[in-house]
Fold:
Amino acid sequence: MVIGKSPKRLAIYFFFDKAGIVDRFVPYFLEELKKCVSDLLIVSNGKLTENGEEILKKYGNLFVRDNVGFDVWAYKESLEYFGWEKLEQYDEVIMLNSTIMGPVYSFRETFDKMDKEDVDFWGLTKYFKHNADPSGCCKYGYIPDHIQSHFIACRRSLVKSEAFHEYWDTMPMINNYWEAVGKHEMIFTKHFEDLGFKSSVSVEMDDLRTYNGYPLMMCPTKLIRERRCPIFKRRMFFHDPKDFLSQTAGEQAGELYRYLETETSYDVDYIWETILRNYNHADIVKDLNLNYVFPEQYSNKDTCPEAVKKNKIVLVMHLYFEDLLEESLHYAKSMPKEADVYITTNSEAKKSAIEKVFADLECNHLEVRVIENRGRDVSSLLVGVRDIIMNYDIACFVHDKKTAQVLPGTAGAAFAYKCFENTLASRAFVENVIEAFDKNPRMGLLSPPEPNHGPFFTTIGREWRGSYELVKEVAGELHLTVPISEDKPPVAPYGTMFWFRPGAMKPLFDKEWKYTDFPEEPNKIDNTILHAIERIYPFVVQQAGFYPGIVMSDRQAGIEYGNLKFYLREYNTIMIENGIEHYHQYMCGALNERLQNYEDRDSLKGVLKRRFHNRVNAAKQRLWKG
Structure:
């Protein structure tokens, strides 16, 4: 069936947001879609905010239903809302949802192309056959080739058929995500093709079958740049990193973002708005590779000074140890002379010593403040300079650090070294950091990489260090609503030295902290409010609509890469020597199984369980090797 001129189209757009908020990517999408359809029904699972309702009603009829049945039942009830007789008056009925963003190219281009196709239904992209059924409920027992359900256009020849009516009339209730996939998305294409209906997709991709089974997720830039794909998945920017790393080098989300930003007219701020509000920043930072490496020895002499001039910049230092004043001055000299410098300390005597040592520091304004010796560096920032911090566009916070409780002393000193060298490595490095904040308006926080040497090695893997519940408590006090999960690490400044945008910290500074909010000194207790605040910084900036990231100097990045490669090789060597060799996630799973089986290894149950797992693993190895 080929569509003639001026086709009559109905689009059923499924929308869901847990807070009922309509982000800006939705009206942009609908504005473009509306140019190509005659009627538009927007169906929302769950209540909308008043503003959300107003936005959606501008583009078509709005149907708000209970949040049950996922998108499948939203489509089913929408079809019932119209009735078959009315639906059959349309040349096409399109079912699409808000999991996709765009369009990057005009939808008119896609519709004009597909109008010439002699098909009964079509979509934008395809998912290729996979000989397994992860849903556990697909009637075929495997994933067949199928049009992805984020956009399926059904022509009249299909809509008026008894088979189509029966498909939707008998659709069972959908209770979870996997049922939505296994009982609808996976089967829709094959079900109707087996009945003699013809289908196609607008993005030519059959030649990618062996390249990847899910091209829209694993090589989206290729589809957009080379094949005029008009959309991309919102999930690109918060997808499970394990899945990405099993099929790519982890480059695809960042590559897509850069392409959209530099080669298209699509406003990438739409992406930030929706992902920062809804998803855990650990996944966002990993998928978008928000790790910044800046040169220590040179900066862009044309743009960096301009970024320094146009932004009000401040360095806040908390100094406690008089024997570290010269070292602290060395790092303070990395700041541009246009910056203001505020130093806090805990006694008048130390203030005098600081003023003497820092007397020749080139800066716009230097001020030393005496604060209470309670709350250490945290109270320095949240109480000691609270009155002035919001006057600045970009800020750096550091403090002297001995970590005296750690032996040998070189390990503690190395922690301080790592923090300082990745915040104030040199004047050129600092200029590059400032320019990055200036160029990236959604950048809110840059922290040095977490310590992972000596006694700090398990920081990676134990980032919360028992502070999770207290962080959640503080988050409640600050009215944070962004996702905080115990199984995802905060991208936080472990060591409390970092660069930040004060405006992004407003939720934290809006609370009028007092010195009495912090434990009395001497304090040697872990998991206090100090540790919670150290970990809550990235969630605060996320709540304000900004992202956290990691910052390193080029020299320090070389050290970090070498260290992490060494650690990884040590683990891999041991695993391989013990017969565990596969993709990363399978190796982790196999090791976990062995450790779980270890305790009952000599019991009959343990022996049988171990034999079973050995056979399964052997089969996996044979399958993997070809």
Summary: Residues 9-205 form a domain with the Spore Coat Polysaccharide Biosynthesis Protein SpsA; Chain A fold (CATH 3.90.550.10).
